[in-house]
Design brief:
The chain is mostly beta strands and 102 residues long. 0% of the residues lie in helices and 45% in strands. The strands form three sheets. It has a six-stranded antiparallel β-sheet with strand order 6-3-2-1-7-8, with no helix packed on it. The protein has a two-stranded antiparallel ribbon with strand order 4-5. The protein has a two-stranded antiparallel sheet with strand order 9-10.
């Protein structure tokens, strides 16, 4: 999985198709990501001494194949490629514009 925390992505399939957001968590073992504002689910949480119980809304993980990274130059979705820089360090690039991704 080439996605990292902080990447701006767009959802390409599912009920949240077209929504954009930042990745806030990656689950590498399950090949899933959590994107802010996408795939909101309601969770029933029991109260304890400090917090009140109730129904809270939270982001649920979605499969990494259902999101694509946003190209920093053209602001459209793109695939991720790999290349090496001058110091022979592997870096990620956007396929559409050849821009370096953070």
């Amino acid at each position: 999985m080439d996605l990292k925390v902080g990447d701006k992505v767009v959802v390409i399939t599912g009920s949240d198709r077209g929504k954009e957001g930042k990745i806030i968590k990656t689950l590498r073992a399950e090949n899933k990501v959590v994107v802010e504002g996408v795939h909101i689910v309601k969770k029933h949480q029991k109260g304890n001494g400090q917090t009140a119980g109730g129904i809270i809304e939270m982001e649920a993980p979605i499969h990494a194949s259902n999101v694509m990274i946003i190209d920093p130059k053209s602001k459209k979705r793109t695939r991720i490629g790999h290349t090496t820089d001058k110091n022979n360090k592997k870096i990620r690039i956007a396929k559409k514009s050849n821009e370096k991704l953070d």
